[in-house]
Design a protein that fits this description.
33% of the residues lie in helices and 13% in strands. With 344 residues, the chain is an alpha/beta fold. It folds into three domains: 71 residues, no CATH class; 101 residues, Rossmann fold; 133 residues, Rossmann fold. The strands form three sheets. It has a seven-stranded mixed beta sheet, covered by helices on one side. Strands 6-5-7-8 form a four-stranded parallel beta sheet, with no helix packed on it. One of its GO terms (biological process) is iron coordination entity transport.
């Protein structure tokens, strides 16, 4: 069986800055420890045990807390390709003007049809995997040459990015409403691409699996806290946050102070509101990672119940909060399956 190893920070080094160098913010769970250094020192040979078995160098812990799905395979994020409904014509080339619409396309299995995104480089969420990560990002105001090369059959846009669609001339443009929840947005994308039946089926499958997971894991008798670390504060995620919605669908309970729809900031007076049977923590950027480490290793944090019982786990902030769609929902659900009964 493949074994994981955790490299310790350099002697005399600052723990937070060392961790920041080896973890990618927004992709903490998938970061690889010092891969370049390992290759340089070993002639590109992988690390092995004395019997020759490969050793994983995936980062599995941060600030004494286990990372959920540290070795997530992002090539498996997107679901199987869907076909258009009976009597509906299909499209071959799709342009997206808002990266938020890529998650529904990933869940519909239509990543190969996306030919361009009118956004800046680096705006495609990493969790969507290499296929969508390789789609050209041609800027919010694409030049005519780039727009011509994309040559889309359909342009999916939102109200905030509608001006980008003007570059594609007479191409069919469909504006996806974003004022509803993530399920409504997913269904709107499916409808726009002639896949209404597939959209309904896929959402039903997810809801069914979420409910089964909750019953199987007795989620109704677990109280889970959601804590996000920013550069200078801790936030309790509300029930309307993306992760909060998924936990509700599973049937996981929240501690009484966390049952409001809106997120709120942790203060000296409400610090213990972060406690629960299990605490999922995440980090917003490098600064959030630094601040989070300081708090997670503090006496005040460690004196609470869940940290005392080693019931604190780290999750990917981009997936749990900064994205919202069916593909991300499956990743959150699978994280809960892997960890609801787990320990730090």
């Amino acid at each position: 069986m493949q074994r994981s190893v955790v490299t310790s920070p350099p002697a005399g080094g600052h723990r937070a800055s060392w961790t920041r160098r080896v973890l990618r913010a927004g992709g903490v769970a998938a970061a690889v420890l010092m891969a370049g250094a390992v290759a340089a020192c070993s002639g590109d040979e992988p690390l092995t045990t004395p019997d020759g078995s490969p050793i994983s160098t995936v980062t599995t812990r941060v600030a004494e807390v286990n990372i959920v799905n540290a070795d997530r395979d992002l090539t498996r994020t997107c679901l199987a390709p869907t076909a258009p409904d009976a009597g509906q014509s299909d499209v071959a080339r799709i342009v997206v003007t808002d990266p938020r619409l890529l998650d529904p396309l990933c869940a519909l299995g239509l990543g190969p049809k996306v030919v361009a995104v009118t956004a800046d480089e680096g705006s495609v969420p990493a969790y969507l995997g290499p296929q969508l990560g390789a789609v050209p990002t041609i800027g919010s105001s694409p030049e005519s040459a780039a727009a011509g090369e994309a040559d889309p059959d359909i342009v999916l846009t939102t109200a905030r990015s509608a001006t980008s669609a003007e570059a594609f001339g007479d191409a069919r443009v469909v504006t996806i409403p974003t004022d509803g929840d993530w399920q409504a947005q997913f269904q709107a994308v499916a409808d726009a691409l002639g896949r209404s039946e597939s959209g309904t089926r896929l959402l039903d499958e997810f809801r069914t699996e979420a409910g089964k997971t909750g019953r199987r894991m007795d989620a109704a008798h677990s109280q889970v806290s959601l804590v996000r670390f920013t550069g200078d504060s801790e936030m309790i995620a509300g029930t309307e946050s993306f992760a909060g919605q998924i936990l509700s669908m599973i049937g996981v309970q929240r501690p009484e102070p966390q049952r409001s729809a809106r997120s709120f900031t942790v203060t000296d007076k409400n610090f213990t509101d972060a406690d629960a049977d299990l605490i999922y923590v995440s980090f917003v950027g490098d600064e959030g990672l630094d601040h989070g480490e300081d708090v997670l290793l503090s006496d005040r944090w460690l004196d609470m119940g869940a940290p005392t019982w080693k019931r604190v786990l780290s999750v990917d902030d981009e997936i749990w909060y900064r994205s919202s769609g069916l593909a991300a929902a499956w990743l959150v659900l699978n994280d809960v399956k892997e960890s609801l009964d787990g320990n730090s």
